[in-house]
Amino acid sequence: MASPQAVLFSLLRNDGEIMLKKFLRCFSRLNQRAERLFFLLEQLRDERAEFILSRSLDRKARGEASPFVLLRCDVHAVGPKELICFGRELAKRSLPAAFLFLAPDHPANLGRLSPQEQLTAMRELEGMGHETGVHLDPHYLISGQECSLEDILREMLSVFSANGIKPVTGSIHGNSRYKGLDENGFGTAFDFFAELGRQPDFPKLSNVHPELAESIRRNRISLESLNFDTWIDQPLWTRKNGFMVTNYISDNGLAKSGTLSVTLQPDSMKHLKLADHQPPGALTCTAARELVPLKGGGMLEPPFTGTRNLDFFSAGLDGLVKVLPSVPLLFLLHPQHYVEGAP
User: Is a pLDDT exceeding 80 seen at residue 250?
Assistant: First the structure.
């Protein structure tokens, strides 16, 4: 008869083999970019960056006014297994993120993520400690529809609720097909939401094509009425504090150019900038309502200000990561860039 120690060792060995197989199976779904991304995020974490979820934004604006990193993951064109692996790898590293989802039947999901798979993934991600939200495409949602944007959104949220999911935040999807540009070439998707509207003369909307302006007026809705307390576009928004201007990293250009777009805001080096309005097309608000000093002094000498595209594998990006923990930062990711077979 085997000794208790031998039995225990056997169980541990078998469990370890199972865990290793799961790890290898999961990580094989991710690519070299994922390894590099996790290295950069771990560097941020190890340099004492605090990774937060959207529900902590008001605490950062008032109670602490200290630097933070908010990871936002816009989900489209990625399969459920790859998505769950990506979320699991973040959670394993104590890197909470906001995963934002399109409407379940959005064409960007077709062939990759079915409506039921999306609901299952949202529940699993929430169970890992991440938060979920909506990634809204208002121009697409109302295209060819007789019902209002409010009716469409309330129906979508009711489906989430019926499946035990409560989206707590959101962002706007930059649909290249349904741009809805104003006369100056700026997008108008934000103008469907009262708190986010960027055109300064609503309801007149003099810089918007008359037909589009009428659609915005007819479909305009309040985020508060949909029970959203935060919105995590750039700039961020909360019901209590309005717009919050942070520094910003985006991987939107990663597939085409192999770069991350990095924006360092002059007013967000030593402060958290609060504002009441976001003009069309701008990365920062025109005027600050309040500049809240950052604990620790922020970044005294930024390497640059404005926007630069940095090679994803460059030493310059490594150096930047060492100073970013001293400032507020929104980091936008698209999980489809980090899965095996991604362009």
Answer: yes
Closest to 100 measured CA to CA, from 132, 76, 77: 132
Residue type, 77: A
Q: For helices 115-127 and 149-162, what crossing angle results, to 10°? A: 60
3-state secondary structure 293-335: ECCCCCCCCCCCCEEEEEECCCHHHHHHHCCHHHCCEEEEECH
How deeply is 66 buried, as exposed, middle or buried, from its count of CB atoms within 10 A (0-12, 13-18, 19+)?
middle
Q: Which residue has the tokens 């077979």?
A: 341
Residue tagged 């085409």 (tokens):
256
pTM of the model: 0.90
Q: Count Cβ neighbours within 10 Å for each residue of 194-208 and write b for 16 or more, e otherwise.
A: ebbbbbeeeeebebb
Beta-strand relationship, 69-75 and 98-101: parallel
Percent of the chain with pLDDT over 90: 73
219 is written with which tokens? Answer: 């479909």
Q: What tokens does 249 get?
A: 């990293």
For 216, the token pair is 């915005």
d(CA 137, CA 117): 20
Q: 95-146: per-residue pLDDT in tens?
A: 999 999 999 888 888 889 999 999 999 999 999 999 999 999 999 999 888 8
Distance separating alpha carbons of residues 83 and 79, to the nearest angstrom: 6
> For the chain, what is the largest distance between any 2 Cα atoms, rounded to a whole number of angstroms?
86
Three-state SS at 170: strand
Residue 103 token pair: 């409407």
- Is the CB of residue 217 less than 8 Å from the CB of residue 210? no
Compute CA 190 distance to the chain's CA centroid, rounded to the nearest angstrom: 16
SS3 category, 72: strand
